[in-house]
């Protein structure tokens, strides 16, 4: 049985943590976001199904803010209990290259450990995202296919790996 998500005293500290996380997210303050994550953070969404560790997860957010133009993040419905949390957030940005505007509506779920976010899972409508990202009819048709999902995931993971290599300090 899941404990109810509330903003009351049972999840007050966790609720404050999520508010700090989303306030930082909306400002593009990735250092503060990183401090909200547990060192063993696990992240997943339709594009990045499994990212493990603070370096990769924050690296993904850094990459998305670096390549997305005019990124705006808003949030609402932040709720938490001692062990779990949830929120709804919206990202609006222009894709590099095409200049297409994407408005991504995301439902997020969280788990907490040691006073930090240890699991962050985002859910959004991949087909809707494809339609905005690739336009009609390509995005509508391709958004339904497992092959496109695999392709988008593979490219995203490859871009993240390249980004992390390019931003990591050179070995001394």
From TrEMBL:
Highest taxon of the lineage: Bacteria
Pfam families (UniProt xref): SnoaL_2
Cited InterPro entries: NTF2-like_dom_sf, SnoaL-like
Domain SnoaL-like per the UniProt entry, residue ranges: 20-120
SUPFAM superfamilies: NTF2-like
Stored Gene3D superfamilies: 3.10.450.50
Protein name: Ketosteroid isomerase-like protein
Lineage: Bacteria, Bacillati, Actinomycetota, Actinomycetes, Streptosporangiales
